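Cross-check.
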Amino acid sequence: MAASFETFEHGADIGIRGRGKTLSEAFENGAKSMFSLLVEDFDTIRPRKSVVISCESFDIEGLFVAWLNCLLAESDIQRLIFSDFKVKIQDLSLTGTAMGEPFDSSRHQRGVEVKGATFTELVVRQDEDCWIAQCVVDV
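Predicted model, tokenized:
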């Protein structure tokens, strides 16, 4: 299987993509892809505090966008950057845990500001033995 998460070029914005053996894993890795944009070195984020996130949507693609936007909102409200994620999906409802820590300028170099996940190039699908979840984020 290819890298579990990555970004891709998209005009003035940036695409994010998560892959996984399960749908939940693809959503988790999609979140990692998005949060890897916020800091220069994603590996410097320590999973010290956890936050529970719940969301639902009208379809599975919308659930991916809702998940990412809920994460951004909690990150902003709690002043945390996240690095690890656990997701449970049942029907069109998601319950997840995001783990991270407060931004620390002595250890974290700022990356780009992600304003929100969009429906642009939104794809959630299974290819053979791999799930893919992707969209473009507004930066």
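The chain has one domain: 5-138. The mean pLDDT is 95. Passed to J.P. for a second look.
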